[in-house]
Amino acid sequence: MSKYKEIKVALLGAGTVGGGVYKLVERRTAEMPDKVGAELKITKVLVKNLQKKREGIPSEVLTDDWEGIIHDPEISIVIELMGGVEPARTYILQALEAGKNVVTANKDLLAEHGQELMEAAERNHRDLCFEAAVGGGIPIIRPLKECLAGNEITEVMGIVNGTTNYILTKMTQEGWDFDDALKEAQRLGFAEADPTADVEGLDAGRKMAILASIAFHSRVTFKDVDVKGITKITAKDIQYAKEFGYTLKLLGVARNEEGKMEVGVSPMMIPSTHPLANVNDSFNAVFVHGDAVDDAMFQGRGAGEFPTASAVVGDLISVARDMQYDCCGRIGCSCYKNLSMKPAGEARHKYFLRLIVEDRTGILAGVAGVLGNNGVSINQVIQKPAVNGVAELVVITDKVETRHLNDAMMIFGEMSMIREVASVIRVYTQK
Ligand SMILES: NC(=O)C1=CN([C@@H]2O[C@H](COP(=O)(O)OP(=O)(O)OC[C@H]3O[C@@H](n4cnc5c(N)ncnc54)[C@H](OP(=O)(O)O)[C@@H]3O)[C@@H](O)[C@H]2O)C=CC1
Ligand SMILES: N[C@@H](CC=O)C(=O)O
């Protein structure tokens, strides 16, 4: 008989990430006792469809019976990898109330119900770990909560969605079209069950809500995040970005300026010399600025089977160690402040505008006039040669309050000389 205690674990979900976690735990089985001080065994794997073939997972551990897991007193850790809000929320709450520790990668759930879940974990003195919920395999949650806890953090920003970064990389570097790149991202297991969450920026918005809550110690939920996706980005935007020396990325930016938080996700142009411009494919990267550490950057694979499993299994080992030392629930909720959100319209940004205009004299003066009357000054402008009586005017503005830019865009919408406001894309600037 082994001298080590056996810790029994239930896995909820055996899809891309769940499958990876099962296989990775198997791969590490022999080392676990030395690493953790206990043997870790996944004894039950909850799925929806018992008939589906699962490579690498023995059929005898598969079940579709949640009650059999929650009422199994031998299971002390539940790993939730089903995704979505319900029934994941209910199962996690039930698991915590039943005295089980929980690991999850579910950002949809945390960005909406994080407070409720953290409170349940605290009440029951149990661990609730979610390293994989942001940045896939990149360690970022624990560094923010622990390693950087001595800082006042004023900015967290970066690329936090692997699917969209993969799509934009393929469009920029290889001229792929959007749909082909998305299909390939789905095939590689990066995309969410409903990829709208990726391409419309919702997934990145949820991750930024989680990061901002931890970094600024104040609860930010998904509804607080100003979100735009990449579905309207065209090959022309990418090409013109290059002409101005920029690269197009879906970026999340969270700032705390004098107690007012601003959290947003949108396609942004960043200087091609910026380190984030060279974070490609499914890689993610997060920048953190703290008063003591200055700048720190975390980079790695942001999605996919084993990168995500790496973060989940790291959490699993951490929980198992806490169990050995009887210190579960040690790292609880850190939202002890109640900061307010800055209204999106008050945020000051630089913008790239692509306008489809009539090919005649006076257009540039007309455009400059409307922008000027609304307090928007022009930093750079390029007029493209006309084709079939229409021309393109590409403008980079100086920093402006977003509401003033929106007012100018409304006026453009009513001007006959402007056929279309084809693109309005934020240009990243440092604080
Ligand atoms: N894919 C990635 O790269 C990353 C994903 N995540 C997060 O990890 C989680 C899992 O993602 P992923 O593995 O891609 O998702 P998948 O869709 O690949 O897998 C989901 C799994 O959960 C099971 N499941 C879903 N609903 C239920 C239910 N009601 N009861 C029982 N089982 C259920 C499914 O069962 P069945 O197989 O029978 O259909 C499937 O095995 C999500 O929260 C996701 O956001 C986080 C980081 C990266
Ligand atoms: N769909 C997500 C998966 C990881 O969180 C992504 O593409 O980043």
UniProtKB/TrEMBL annotation:
GO terms (BP aspect): methionine biosynthetic process; threonine biosynthetic process
GO MF, one example: NADP binding
Pathway: Amino-acid biosynthesis; L-methionine biosynthesis via de novo pathway; L-homoserine from L-aspartate: step 3/3; Amino-acid biosynthesis; L-threonine biosynthesis; L-threonine from L-aspartate: step 3/5
The reaction(s) this protein catalyses: L-homoserine + NADP(+) = L-aspartate 4-semialdehyde + NADPH + H(+)
Alphabetized SUPFAM superfamilies for the sequence: ACT-like, Glyceraldehyde-3-phosphate dehydrogenase-like, C-terminal domain, NAD(P)-binding Rossmann-fold domains
E.C. designation(s): 1.1.1.3
Active site (record annotation): K207
Family membership: Belongs to the homoserine dehydrogenase family.
PANTHER family in alphabetical order: HOMOSERINE DEHYDROGENASE (PTHR43331)
The protein's name in its UniProt record: Homoserine dehydrogenase
Organism: Hominiventricola filiformis
